[in-house]
Amino acid sequence: xxxxxxxxxxxxxxxxxxxxxxxxxxxxxxxxxxxxxxxxxxxxxxxxxxxxxxxxxxxxxxxxxxxxxxxxxxxxxxxxxxxxxxxxxxxxxxxxxxxxxxxxxxxxxxxxxxxxxxxxxxxxxxxxxxxxxxxxxxxxxxxxxxxxxxxxxxxxxxxxxxxxxxxxxxxxxxxxxxxxxxxxxxxxxxxxxxxxxxxxxxxxxxxxxxxxxxxxxxxxxxxxxxxxxxxxxxxxxxxxxxxxxxxxxxxxxxxxxxxxxxxxxxxxxxxxxxxxxxxxxxxxxxxxxxxxxxxxxxxxxxxxxxxxxxxxxxxxxxxxxxxxxxxxxxxxxxxxxxxxxxxxxxxxxxxxxxxxxxxxxxxxxxxxxxxxxxxxxxxxxxxxxxxxxxxxxxxx
Length: 396
Known about the structure:
Helices cover 41% and strands 16% of the residues.
């Protein structure tokens, strides 16, 4: 019969069997269907600097990047990434051998894990984690081992003893995210020192997702893990233009690492997209050279938006974890008399005209994340104020 297969075996690779349509697609569709304000998926609703957008247009018109750019990325962007790391963190990288441009941070994560993890290797990751982490570990044939961040004194904290206990003889790699999505935690120097010492002691590789490096607030400080003793030669650091410059659709990311690590990751990356985002690479090179005033204004603007949404969520009755980084707020829905984040988020568009994401999708231990819900505040202040007004209906 037409359309039938000759085997009863499922069509989807068994490594991906547990991964269906992402929660982001489901909740965004709900937002469209109900006309709700979408505070679920983390993308800004305004573009970044006009001069950077014009730089992309100029590159396109001048024919720079319209054909295949070099596999490692255009030299201008690789140089800009290296200069950024040196200027901000004192980390020196050779743009020719220690920088690789990728199709956003998502491809960087995929390429790094496909390159560095073999079937049976264990990958220790901080839970909750961005959903692509789990899928990429699975595609590599690895086994993910979650270490759960838990609420403590108004923030989510890492238990270093639990992290150390999670490392076994089969552990190949630590997958670290700071500033952390979705909890907004920024790991401290003391915590990073302990992670670095563990990695050196147990001879582990580390992939560190630092895409929110420019979005830290209050007294928080972002410190790259690669800057700690013994870490530069074992750490793949991932950065991205999308979160910092509000051009998430351009999909320009990068890794910085020692030559051997870059070569390994490039070996996997070349069979994923090979190259991407040609004209945008030239624009991002210009963006990375923007004056410090841009980054300061960007942080201050996002901090103000955080305050608008945090106040609205508190008034609506949520337990609010004010983030030290990223542009997400995690909330506890139990003060509202409910504890099932999935059911709450699926009903929220009809109840209050707002879309959020249940944090449980970011957990292996779903019960740990069940009462937590994430909202994005990378939206225009007027929209956040309207969302806050709508959410206040829950308090009644």
